[in-house]
Design a protein that fits this description.
The complex is a heterodimer of chains A (263) and B (365).
Chain A: E1 5-14, E2 17-27, E3 32-37, H1 43-50, E4 58-63, E5 66-68, H2 73-78, E6 81-84, H3 96-100, E7 107-110, E8 114-117, H4 119-132, H5 149-162, E9 167-171, H6 179-194, E10 198-202, H7 206-212, E11 215-220, E12 223-229, H8 235-243, H9 246-262
Parallel strand pairs in A: 3-10, 3-11, 6-9, 9-10
Antiparallel strand pairs in A: 1-2, 1-4, 4-5, 7-8, 11-12
Helix pairs in contact in A: 5-6, 8-9
Chain B: H1 2-13, H2 15-49, H3 56-81, H4 89-107, H5 114-141, H6 147-166, H7 176-183, E1 185-189, E2 195-197, E3 210-214, H8 215-233, H9 235-245, H10 247-252, H11 257-283, H12 294-304, H13 316-335, H14 340-364
Antiparallel strand pairs in B: 1-2, 1-3
Helix pairs in contact in B: 2-13, 3-8, 3-11, 3-12, 3-13, 4-5, 4-6, 4-11, 5-6, 5-11, 7-11, 8-9, 9-11, 12-13, 12-14, 13-14
Classes of the chains: A alpha/beta (263), B mainly alpha (365).
């Protein structure tokens, strides 16, 4: 079991509330793991711990089998964990190249002494990574404001990939998109998997999950209540796990635990 | 049947949208170019309205009297691109006009000679002039005071400190060299085509000497050119746009947002202080309210130049066009003998118009 990213017994309390309760979950390279759960189930908190926004009270995070300390978003980035939030964090007034290189701009020398922005080469690099991910954007000179929701998502993902993301966390990637655009983003997720990137998707859309995820992890009240291989489960069962219809959930979970023990 | 029904309304509407479309296209072109069109019409109007407006020399006069607006508009632009505002620039200008003269008065008796006195005076003023900006930036970036409040308070502080320093008497003791620079020209062409730099030839009364480009316009152009480059081509400039466009994105991209904001307010104050020095050199006096009425002009220049008050857009070039509209209006009204109050009213009206046009263009986009 070589996990690219693994959490062991991650626990986080907020006052008297246990938002995440001894959660251990793993992600392999080239795999998409969906994290599901109702509002307040703890999935956002778990994700925020992995991406360095929150610090866990207990538990460890392993990357490629090595324990890592993730105490800030910068630590997570340095470890190759990129998070794409719903708001995408793009500067809408700047173009695609400028956004991909935001905060890490490429400079060139002009007239021998002046250091000026090298927009040309930033756009060329942007084009390369877009090509690699089969993303079409008509003109890279246009500002983000003029792009569609799906294109923006693609730019945000490209930025992560350009900066060598090994693990990509996507928070509700299709929530604000039209149907055609949703398809494109899901295709993009497949492409990323094909390139060996591990992806964690948080989503409410059961369709997305069954379309692209390989495995899913269901959380309820801070606990990991079930892990399933997507091919071996049904939406009904997953909904049962999410809302806590014990009959469906527990039985299966116990069966699964037994299996794991055997392995 | 449903098909026939569906096509009908589209066909019926066909003629309408086409005409509306071309009107809209025209409106869009006018909307984008209105600053240039307005500037051209305004200039034409004053050429007819006031005698002597339409000659090359009034272009020099226009730029000469416009420099303070150009400097303050550039300062304001940086702050507005971040989504903030700097209300203190006018009184920082006044403060610097006083400080520069007082410093030179104080340095004069030390026997350094005029050139050194002027040079040290200017440099010290620029350093002291950074202080209001650093305080503004610190308040805005680190203590999260809204820019409006921070810089409005700084306006009051600068005004008060200025009054305390001059104690009721305007600062007047500017070295002669400084006032010579302030009223001098880069190039003089005397009779017989003899040209000289900086110093005009001594000629008899009635002999005309061509004066080409006031020194102050040269210096201001260079400085504004440098800052235009900084905003458009440097990493700092890119970050300024980024934090005006999406502060959150800028933070997550690892941009040192607080340091950048501090830099922007310091830069604004630096340009305003430079304006104060220029004012002192031009008018050989320093007074607290030297730049009081320029705040409206500067903000108007930036907004007419198409920058959004919400931040993230604007350029030095377009801001200069906006500021030119104000400068032409100012000179035109002066030359046609209209009281200056008319100017304030007109600037106010044009500013409101600019905001409405910007809003309209944005909704369409």
């Amino acid at each position: 079991m070589d996990y690219l990213l693994e959490t062991r017994n991650i626990t986080k309390h907020f006052g008297g509330l246990t938002a995440v309760d001894h959660v251990s979950v793993g992600l392999r390279a080239g795999e998409a793991l969906a994290v599901l759960g109702d509002n307040g189930a703890g999935k956002s908190t778990l994700i925020k711990i992995i991406s360095g926004v929150h610090r866990p009270d207990e538990g460890e995070i392993y990357i490629g089998g090595k324990a890592v300390r993730i105490e800030s978003p910068m630590d997570a980035l340095a470890a190759g964990i990129e998070t794409i939030y719903q708001d995408l964090a793009l500067a809408e007034n700047l173009d695609v190249g400028a956004n991909i290189f935001l905060g890490r701009e490429r400079m060139r020398r002009s007239l021998g002494i002046l250091r000026v922005l090298d927009d040309q080469s930033m756009r060329e690099e942007a084009q390369k990574v877009l090509d690699r991910l089969d993303i079409e954007i008509p003109s890279l000179k246009k500002t983000i404001r003029t792009l569609s929701g799906g294109q923006r998502q693609a730019v945000a993902i490209s930025r992560s990939i350009y900066w060598d993301a090994k693990v990509l966390i996507m928070d509700e990637p299709t929530a604000a998109l039209g149907v055609a655009e949703q398809k494109k983003v899901l295709n993009l997720v497949r492409t990323l998997k094909g390139q060996g990137i591990g992806i964690i998707i948080i989503s409410h859309q059961m369709y997305d999950v069954f379309e692209v995820a390989d495995r899913l992890a269901v959380m309820r009240r801070g606990l990991l209540v079930g892990e399933r291989v997507v091919k071996e489960t049904t939406p009904d069962e997953v909904v049962g796990l999410i809302v806590g219809s014990e009959t469906v959930g527990k039985e299966r979970q116990e069966g699964r635990t037994a299996e794991t023990a055997e392995e | 049947m449903p098909n026939a029904n569906a096509t009908k309304p589209i066909a019926a509407r066909g003629a309408g949208p086409e005409r509306a479309g071309s009107v809209r296209a025209l409106a869009s072109i006018l909307g984008k170019r209105w600053v240039l069109i307005f500037l051209a019409l305004e200039t034409l109007y004053f050429c007819f309205k006031s005698q002597g407006f339409a000659n090359l020399n009034s272009l020099q006069i226009l730029l000469f009297y416009g420099v303070l607006v150009f400097l303050l508009a550039t300062a304001e632009l940086f702050v507005i691109v971040t989504g903030g505002i700097d209300l203190s620039v006018g009184y920082v200008l006044g403060f610097a006009s006083i400080i520069s003269i007082k410093l030179m008065e104080w340095l004069g008796p030390l026997g350094l000679g005029e050139p050194l006195t002027v040079l040290i005076g200017v440099c010290l003023t620029l350093v002291i002039g950074l202080v209001p900006g650093l305080v503004n930036g610190w308040l805005v970036a680190y203590l999260k005071v809204p820019p409006f409040i921070a810089t409005f308070s700084m306006l009051g502080v600068c005004h008060g400190v200025s009054e305390l320093i001059i104690n009721g008497v305007y600062a007047m003791g500017l070295p002669k060299l400084a006032s010579d620079i302030g009223s001098g020209y880069l190039l003089y062409v005397g009779p017989g085509g003899r040209a000289s730099l900086f110093q005009g030839p001594v000629v008899d009364r009635g002999v005309t000497v061509l004066d080409i480009v006031p020194n102050i316009v040269v210096v201001t152009s260079i400085i504004i050119g440098i800052f235009a480059f900084v905003l458009a081509r440097s990493k700092f400039g890119r970050h300024v746009y980024a934090l005006g466009g999406n502060m959150d994105a800028a933070i997550r991209a690892g941009i040192p947002v607080k340091r950048r904001l501090l830099g922007v307010y310091a830069l604004s104050s630096f340009l305003a202080s430079l304006g104060g020095i220029v004012y002192a050199f031009m008018y050989v006096s320093g007074k607290p309210d030297a730049g009081a009425s320029l705040l409206l002009d500067a903000i108007a220049g930036v907004v007419i130049g198409g920058a959004s008050m919400f931040g993230g857009s604007g350029s030095v070039g377009r801001t200069m066009l906006g500021a030119l509209i104000i400068a032409v209006l100012d000179l035109g009204l002066r030359m046609s003998g209209t009281p200056t109050f008319d100017k304030y009213i007109l600037v106010g009206v044009i500013l409101i118009l600019a905001v409405i046009i910007e809003r309209y263009m944005q909704e369409k986009a």
